[in-house]
Amino acid sequence: MSQAMKRCSAHTCAAVAVRRALSSGAATPSVYTRFLLKLSHYFYDVENILDWNNWLRSQGVIHKNRLFGYAQKNFGNNVAAAYYILTLRGSFRFAGQSEWFRPDSRGRFSYDFMSTPDAKIEEVDLSGTLINHNGLENLVKQNKLQTLSLRGCPEVDDWFLARLHVFGESLVELDLSHCSRITVGGLAALQNLRKLERLDISGLPRLQNPGLVRILLEEMLPHCQVSGAEYEQGLIQPDSQEQTEGHHEASTHTGLRHL
Amino acid sequence: MWRKLFTSVPAFRALKAPCRSFKSSSRGAEKDFFKDLDAQLRAFRDKAAAAMPGSDWSPIELTPGLPPERADVVIVGGGVVGWSIAYWLKMKARVRDGLRVLVVEKDPTYSQASTVLSCGGIRQQFSLKENIMLSLFSAHFMKNINNHLCVVNEDPVDLQFNHSGYLFLASEKSAHIMEENYRTQRYVGAKVALLSPSQLKERFPWMNMEGVALASLGLENEGWFDPWSLLNALRRKAVSMGVYQCFGEVTGFKCAANLAETTDGEVLNVQRIKYVNVRMPNSLEYQPVECAVVVNAAGANSGKIASMLGIGLGPKESVSGVPLPVEPRKRFVYVVHCPDGPGLDTPFLIDYSGVYCRREGLGGNYITGMSPEETEEPDISNLDVDHEFFQEKVWHRLAHRIPAFEQLKVSNAWAGFYDYNTFDQNGIIGLHPLVPNMYFATGFSGHGLQQSPAVGLAVAELILDGGYKTIDLSALDLKRILLQEPILESNIV
Predict the structure, then answer these.
(1) Which of A107, A115, B308, B462 is 20 to 30 A off residue B455, Cα-Cα?
(2) CB B163 to CB A189 under 8 A?
(3) Strand (E) positions, B87-165?
């Protein structure tokens, strides 16, 4: 019975996750994915396999964003935060040091960061990682964080942005480009980041009027430079109006010539 | 009584008619003949298909939309609280048909339901720790709403949550209450910050600071969302788990009465509900639904449901003389347009004078309103809007606080009911001693929407586990009404 329940919940989350991935994915899915999806509409077992796949993926995200309580208790908050960032395949730089700690292409990293347990993290690059609002719990104590890059993170949504208020006194640069789940409601929560100077909002598919949002953000955060959206985006283009006027003039010219 | 399947028997006789019209042109007669034959054959085919097994024709005419004849739990009221209870009951039951839940809603269009007419705000800035815990749980529920409420092959739930937070303003004389509340909120886990007037001026330059001594801003888990999306998501998920939905009005109950003697020697009439009479819309037909437990989540009409059981109709000194203190109170909401108004950082502003205002969309529209004085409560017989109230009471207070609102245009307005708890304006959850199988979940006085997921879980735990497991809401129990012990919230809207 519990297995049936688990399968039921897998069924529910997974098919929706598939649809979500497809609807929010920038490129069209591959032929293989579309073929599998077509099959899953006809066969229950294919649907079940896809569901299990997506359920495992969502469990993977939850596992990656778990609280690193053991590391926090035994090695301190800074080391735990550093360890968390590296396991997510992100990179960071401590305040006062100039070299970045990065994992290599296979995800392995050195444990040198453990030698400086008092150093706070200043810059974090989490682009393309699976961080979500629960994972931010591991970074909450980093009150010297100045740069945060979340380029192309699929799990970053409005609730994540609402939690960023903990960095309100220190965050200077924030890169939110290509995070497909962010909407205007989440960007409104950035009002708590009073020291923000650079904000990147390019490539956000759920913003209907990027130009208007840029104007509103610049008004909300007066010292901040917002990039990634042009003022004309979302406006009715004046070029089409000029074109119709040009046609109109040409026709009147020919009309006058006939007279 | 028995519906005739083959009513087209006379049609076969009509085939003879063309032969009689000898005088009319033969070609016209032939055309009629074939057209008629075609229509008759088609009708014959449809009737034959209906008669075959697999069609839904039945000789007994059944009213569509009747509720089932028996159910385990009947939830009176199909608003967000009722559907939340239905969802959590099924969630806790775990087995597919382990519990038969029926939700009865009077109005399929939800035209007067408080859920859909509300402003949709959620905040943790209360003074009672139960209220803070309820809305904190609801915010966490909405954070992971797709894990809870997604259905196979349907779109993911989008609540359109705006995370702008609530901003409460306090004058000199209520600043100490705000500080006390801030301590309670922080203790329970809400993320709130106190702001001084100078910090407020720096953050929100469009606001007039006159009279403001202290302000409290919600940093996280606060804002507003679309109540219709939440209601539909809960309903969709509950129906997919097997909850029965019926559109009809509860007109009465059939109870088994027992006499019980109190320690004072008073004899009380304890009624156990056996049947709920559900009347179909626009009809006199009703279905008595045999049930074990009834949940009163009827919102503004909860008092009426309670009086059907005789609660409040007894002698004044006894337990049965205390009515359920929930009555509908009309509140107005005005949509105003001000192109020079505050921008994206506008929180849900609540002034100490009682006026509130929040941003709606990106086009310079705002939603505003105010709670009227106790003595000036508007008439509750209809949902008409009183625009004079805005002109006389709301506008000048709003323009005093936000100077840009001196020039605005009211583009729209609506009115809705609060299920107002006249006793202490907090929710009533629990059993009544005179009706041992009716659970109450009502009287939230404007906070029902933001507390609904948590209240649903609490009532489901009461019904299935016999006690609270997640959040302890014993302070909100119904017995405080009978014992006359109000728990009051300071700073209410």
Answers:
(1) B308
(2) yes
(3) 101-105, 121-122
**Closest CA of chain B from A189, distance in Å:** 5
pLDDT > 80? residue A245: no
| Contact between A198 and A225 (Cβ < 8 Å) | yes
Residue A191, chain B, CB below 8 Å: the answer is yes
Q: What tokens does B274 get?
A: 């056996």
pLDDT in tens, B124-148: 999 999 999 999 999 999 999 988 9
Q: What angle do CA B264, B266, B270 make, to 5 degrees?
A: 125
What's the pLDDT tens digit per position in A64-111?
A: 999 999 999 999 999 999 999 999 999 999 998 999 999 999 989 999
State the pLDDT confidence band at A1, using cuts at 50, 70 and 90: very low
Confidence class for position B3, pLDDT limits 50, 70, 90:
low
Q: What are the beta bridge partners of residue B334?
A: B368, B413
pLDDT tens digits, residue range B233-286?
Answer: 999 999 999 999 999 999 999 999 999 998 888 888 999 999 999 999 999 999
Question: B152 and chain A: CB distance < 8 Å anywhere?
Answer: yes
> Residues of chain B with pLDDT > 90: what percent?
79
Q: What Rg do the C-alpha atoms of chain A give, in angstroms?
A: 24
Length of chain A: 259
Residue type, B369: G
- What integer pLDDT is reported at residue B60 of this predicted model? 86
Cα dihedral A23, A25, A30, A34 in deg (nearest 10): -20
The partner residues of A175 in beta bridges, in order of sequence, read A149, A200
- Tokens read off for A245: 């006027």
Helix runs in B314-447, H state only = 387-389, 395-401
**The pTM is what?**
0.86
Q: Give backbone dihedrals phi and psi of B346, rounded to 5 degrees, phi first.
A: -65, 120
d(CA B290, CA B275): 4
Residues of A with CB below 8 A from B223's CB? 162, 185, 188-189
CA distances (Å), origin B207, targets B47, B203, B382, B402 = 72, 9, 36, 5
Kindly indicate the confidence band of residue A19, based on its pLDDT and cuts at 50, 70 and 90.
Answer: very low
CA A199 to CA A217: how far, in whole Å? 9
DSSP 3-state assignment of B166?
A: strand
Assigned token pair, B114: 């408080």
- In the chain, the amino acid numbered A210 is P
Task: Give the model confidence (pLDDT) of B411-455 as tens digits.
Answer: 999 999 999 999 999 999 999 999 999 999 999 999 999 999 999
What own/partner pairs with CB < 8 Å and gap ≥ 24 does B48-54 have?
B50/B5, B51/B5
Q: Which two tokens stand for residue A185?
A: 């409601």
With H, G, I as helix, E, B as strand and everything else as coil, classify residue B237: helix
Which pLDDT score is estimated for A14?
45
| DSSP classification of residue A109 | -
Q: CA B334 to CA A168: how far, in whole Å?
A: 34
Task: Count each helix (H run) and each strand (E run) in chain A, helices first.
Answer: 9, 7
Tokens (6 digits) for B456:
């649903």
Q: What one-character DSSP code corresponds to residue A112? A: G
Q: Among A10-19, A162-171, B315-324, which stretch is predicted with the lowest mean pLDDT?
A: A10-19
> Which of A2, A16, A186 is nearest residue B146 as measured by Cβ atoms?
A16
**How far apart, in Å, are the Cα atoms of A16 and each of B109, B150, B154?**
28, 7, 7
Using a CB-CB distance cutoff of 8 angstroms, which residues of chain A are in contact with residue B344?
184, 187-188, 191, 213, 216-217, 219-220
Between chains, do B343 and A11 touch, taking CB under 8 Å as contact? Answer: no
With a CB cutoff of 8 Å and minimum separation 6, the contacts of B103 are B75, B77, B78, B82, B83, B86, B238, B243, B244, B245, B246
Q: Is A54 in contact with A15 (CB distance < 8 Å)?
A: yes
Answer yes or no: do B345 and A186 touch at CB < 8 A: no
